Amino acid sequence: MSGLKHIYIVLTIFLATATLKPSAGLYLGRRHVHIINNLDDHVTLCIHCWSRDDDLGRHVLKPNKEFKWSFYDNYFIPTRFSCNMDYGRGRKRRRAQFVVYDTTKTLRSRPCYKHCKWSVRNIGLYAYDETDDFWDFEVPWPSKNHF
Q1: What is the pLDDT of residues 58-105, one digit of tens each?
Q2: Long-range Cβ pairs for the range 108-116 (8 Å, 24+)
Q3: pTM of the full predicted structure?
Q4: What are the two backbone dihedrals, phi and then psi, of residue 6, each rounded to the nearest 5 degrees?
Q5: CB 102 within 8 A of CB 126
Q6: Which of 5, 99, 132, 133 gets the highest tally of CB atoms within 10 A of its CB?
Q7: What whole-number distance in Å separates Cα of residue 123 and Cα of residue 145?
């Protein structure tokens, strides 16, 4: 009986650490994805995000506004969220599809744990580094603007 109790205690400590200490490299808590419109010249950003299970709809973000959602990772079936994004008109129109969260790939130079924040700017997407409190340039807008 004491062996089973020992395993239970170790498992409880492990899960508590994974949930409360995202900097330890494993996070089992609720994840939050943020898409922030930081485009120049007060331009609105249109986004449509989805996963295999959820269509989050189309949203129009005014300057410096954000769209956010949260979820729990499914560790048996990979979690992936993609977003179509576009802004501007005519020749200045930019549009692309970006993967903003994926459990099977490394999308960013530094991982996100609890909050996966993306700043959409004129040259591309910046990712927020929770550990250093810094925005890193990660993904440029593609040169061919079609989905």
Answers
A1: 999 999 999 999 998 877 888 899 999 999 988 888 999 999 998 887
A2: 108/136, 108/138, 109/136, 109/138, 110/136, 111/25, 112/31, 113/22, 113/23, 113/27, 113/31, 114/22, 114/27, 114/29, 114/30, 114/31, 114/32, 115/31, 115/32, 115/34, 116/31, 116/32, 116/33, 116/34
A3: 0.77
A4: -65, -45
A5: no
A6: 99
A7: 13
